[in-house]
Design goal:
This protein is of the alpha+beta class. 43% of the residues lie in helices and 24% in strands. It contains seven helices and seven strands, in the order βββββββααααααα. The protein has helices spanning 96-118, 123-136, 143-157, 167-177, 186-201, 208-220, 225-235, and strands at residues 5-6, 12-13, 22-23, 26-42, 47-62, 65-79, 85-87. The strands form two sheets. The chain has a five-stranded antiparallel beta sheet, with no helix packed on it. Strands 2-3 form a two-stranded antiparallel sheet. α1 (96-118) packs antiparallel against α4 (167-177) and α5 (186-201) crosses α7 (225-235). The radius of gyration is 27 Å and the shape is elongated. The protein starts with a strand and ends with a helix.
Length: 239
């Protein structure tokens, strides 16, 4: 077999004579060329793996010898571990490492937005927020760090603590949540909203600014308005 040619032979059975033998006469082969590489989440392996992005040229074969061109094929993504080929849209799925970072940043952004909407940055709210952020992956997050970040967010956006979510903060929420939402199950999207709700409720009932911020969070997570209302009400009920 010629180097670089993949096995994709087709067999012709000699039905005219009734012979049972299979003659390897006509077939096709593909020569693959690497055009890129990187790391991706392999659905076959179930984890992060290296990949090669390939394009191919197909040819008819006669007795195993490549002859007439059949055109191009691909691009495909080949897993370096299992060698399976996938369509290029498999790269749209984030790697496990990237997904963890997206989730961590989303929880952190929601916590800051709710705290800024709260206005008072009460200690109970800061403690609840810090616990959520640490659980998401920021192990060294402290209440004092969050309080300082909230002050910086308010100064950067020109908002006043306790006022409704302004355009700048809404954009930040969408930038953090929009890329993540398609890769989360409904329960995962709801869990992020409920974390924000618990932060808001840590020092008392929702303020109008907190509720508006949480509605923005629900919208960015593609949770419908009725479900947002249901979840915010459920968060107020002790479990």
């Amino acid at each position: 077999m010629l180097p670089g040619w993949g096995r994709n032979e087709r067999f012709v059975r000699n039905g005219a004579t009734g012979a049972t033998g299979v003659s390897r006469i006509l077939g096709s082969r593909t020569a693959w060329t690497t055009v890129g590489d990187g790391e991706f989440f392999c659905p076959g392996c179930g984890g992060d793996r290296n990949y090669q992005r390939l394009t191919g040229r197909r040819r008819f074969t006669f007795f195993g010898v490549p002859l007439l061109p059949r055109g191009e094929t691909g691009p495909v993504v080949e897993c370096a571990a299992c060698r399976h080929h996938y369509s290029a849209d498999v790269l749209d799925h984030p790697t496990t490492t990237r997904f963890s970072a997206m989730l961590r940043d989303a929880v952190h952004t929601v916590a800051l937005a709710v705290l800024a909407a709260d206005g008072s940055c009460a200690r109970t709210s800061l403690e609840t927020a810090a616990c959520a952020v640490r659980s998401a992956g920021f192990d060294d997050c402290s209440e004092d760090q969050l309080a300082a970040l909230v002050e910086a967010v308010v100064a950067d956006t020109g908002r006043v603590l306790g006022e409704p979510c302004g355009p700048g903060l809404a954009i930040e929420l969408h930038e953090a949540l929009d890329p993540l939402a398609p890769h989360l199950a409904p329960t995962g999207r709801e869990a992020i909203l409920l974390q924000g709700a618990r932060i808001a409720l840590a020092d008392g009932p929702y303020t109008p600014a907190e509720r508006e911020t949480l509605v923005t969070v629900g919208s960015a997570l593609t949770i419908c308005a009725d479900d947002v209302t249901r979840l915010l009400a459920a968060a107020r009920t002790p479990s």
